[in-house]
Amino acid sequence: MTRDFLQETDCFLFDLDGTLVDSAPLHDQAYRHVLETERADLLAGFDYGAVAGLTTQTAFRRIGAAEDEVARLTALKQAHYRALLGGLSEMPGAAALLTALRARGAKVGIVTAASRASALKALDVTGLERHVMTVIAAEDTAAAKPAAAPFLMAAEMLKTDVAHAVAVEDAPSGIIGAGAAGLKTIGVHNEAIRNMVNRYFADLTAFAEALP
Catalytic: 15? Predict the structure, then answer.
């Protein structure tokens, strides 16, 4: 991606967890709490990094939960996560970046694999909701990330041509989905995705500094 592309971009679709909010420790804690109490046999092999960016249901399937217990485990995990959200903070530079984008007249949306309740509470707790024009959450489309559908819905909601939109992600599932939807991608916070995206920034402050 070139500087000229950033000049032409008028819509930024952000992932939430790990991109705008520092939620990984809370998600990890919530998964571990549920596994410890409900499926202790799966706890030893659990690695949150391996399921980051996936819906909670998909994550439990990936971890090894039986299909008939996925819904119950998902509800428990989401409830425990939301109980922890009082300690959530934004990723450094998130508010400043979103403020700068909105000042340029850009549209800002959230495309997340989190449930709507969790996403809205996270945005409220961190104060980032005031910058966001739409939120597409896990339950809003039949197929979540890494499918294209959430990104296409966000672009439609914001009345934006995908050719003029970019997805900002920290995990492979979102990058794959955004690419399938025809968006360019910016990666942050995760060196492992550097070669998957059109442009990579170590953090949101570096991204803000690159804006034209």
Answer: yes
